[in-house]
Amino acid sequence: MLRPFNNITEMKYISTRNKSKKVSFREAVLKGIPDDQGLYFPENIPVVSKGIFASGTKADLHETSFEIARRFTGTEIPAVKLSEMIAEALNFDIPLIETEPGIYTLELFHGPTLAFKDVGARFLAQCMAYFSKDSSPLTILVATSGDTGSAVANGFLGVEGINVVVLYPSGKVSQLQEKQFTTLGKNITALEINGSFDDCQHMVKEAFADKELTKRRKLTSANSINIARLIPQSFYYFHTWHQLPEKQLPVVISVPSGNYGNLTAGLLAKEMGLPVSKFIAASNVNRPVPDYLETGVFSPRPSIGTIANAMDVGNPSNFERILTIYQHSHKKITEKIEAMSFTDDQIRSIIHEAYLKTGYLPDPHGATAYGALKIIQQNKKITGIFLETAHPAKFHSVIQQATGIKTEIPEKLKRFDKGKKQSIPMKNKYQELKGFLLA
Ligand SMILES: *Cc1c(COP(=O)(O)O)cnc(C)c1O
């Protein structure tokens, strides 16, 4: 049963770099990035009523998500339609599981590609389909080094009026990843580029900048900074709260962070009223944000390769949104966020210890978040929640190195592996991509 809504008003979006130019949610979703190259952000953060946190509130992901989504989409999507879109996007569980006394994990990896990016990509797909339903077909162009391509391709699979074209570097993507976007068929096409990931990204950028092409084809990106990927990530923080059996001690949520979208969504939930006492930004040795918290200076730098490679980001784009939430105040930010970063060796030993002591096997990303909670619990009585952003089997060689255990590949991933790879080989030349898109 959906509760009726009072006071749902219009919601406008601004750029983090210009608060005076306001756009609709629709425009923010379809455009992706404002002209000033900032990031879209809600003009006001909606506040939810205290009732939503009352004990005994049902832990229903769909209902919670709907309640939150309505506040961000305002009057632009009818309630019944929005409810359907959420049901379609979040058609998997997000369970909270106790791993040991005082520590819980929120498993975000039960979607089709077994990583948390499914949540954002699937909601974005629903929004794009809704907002472009009465116009000519949209083509989503993505360059991928592995994970983004699979989350986007699977998120948009079978979505009407949208074609997805994934560019990936031939031979530089693991077979398991490649299968996740080359075996789908339907509205998904994979272009296997004879070149590097940078070449792929270059070709995509050139396509967006090509006026002649964009006049004839409606192109858009499913970039990770699209506001419709960020918003749904706030839903599961509320869902976590509803599932949490003990709420007496201060609750600390630890988030494995790379581009900082997941953490930004958590902060958004906190500003909406979620009674979390603190967030931990857990990372690998890519430390621009931990260093900012320590020094007050944000200095982006080239990324460093690690075993938690989905967090190998040297210039996290969502940091700009965090600055916007807290009016660029270093003091306010350090009150809400604490940071901890871990080397590859430390990550491997955290995985091993977690497994030995609790029987729970975290993936290399979740392990950083778990490790941070263990350190905090040495001095403080807290209830800790760490987000598990990927299924450990996606990183089976790291897990085997760390623990000696061979993780079983889940049925969902095996299914991709059985599919037949279909890709179109292409030179790393923009003219070839253009020819393909216009054909
Ligand atoms: C993308 C990703 C992250 C990092 O999330 P951000 O929102 O970019 O901080 C962490 N873990 C996994 C498995 C990911 O795929």
State the shape.
Answer: globular
Q: Using only CA atoms, what is the Rg?
A: 21 Å
Portion in strands: 15-25%
CATH class group of the domain at 92-114 and 228-409 = Alpha Beta
At CATH's second level, what is the architecture of the domain at 92-114 and 228-409? 3-Layer(aba) Sandwich
Largest sheet: 6 strands, mixed
What is the CATH topology descriptor of the domain at 92-114 and 228-409? Rossmann fold
Helix content: 40-55%
Gap from first CA to last CA = 47 Å
Which segments are poorly predicted (pLDDT under 50) over 5 or more consecutive residues? 1-5
Bound ligands, each once = pyridoxal-5'-phosphate
Q: Strand order, main sheet: write it out.
A: 4-5-13-10-11-12
Number of strands: 14
Mean pLDDT: 93
The gist of it:
The chain has about 450 residues and is α/β, with parallel strands linked by helices.
Describe the protein in words.
By secondary structure, the protein is α/β, with parallel strands linked by helices. It has a domain at 92-114 and 228-409: Rossmann fold (3-Layer(aba) Sandwich). Helices cover 43% and strands 17% of the residues. It has 18 helices and 14 strands. The strands form three sheets. A six-stranded mixed β-sheet has the order 4-5-13-10-11-12, sandwiched between helices. Strand 6, helix 5 (147-156) and strand 7 (162-169) form a beta-alpha-beta unit. The longest helix is centred in the middle third of the chain and has 17 residues, at 227-243.
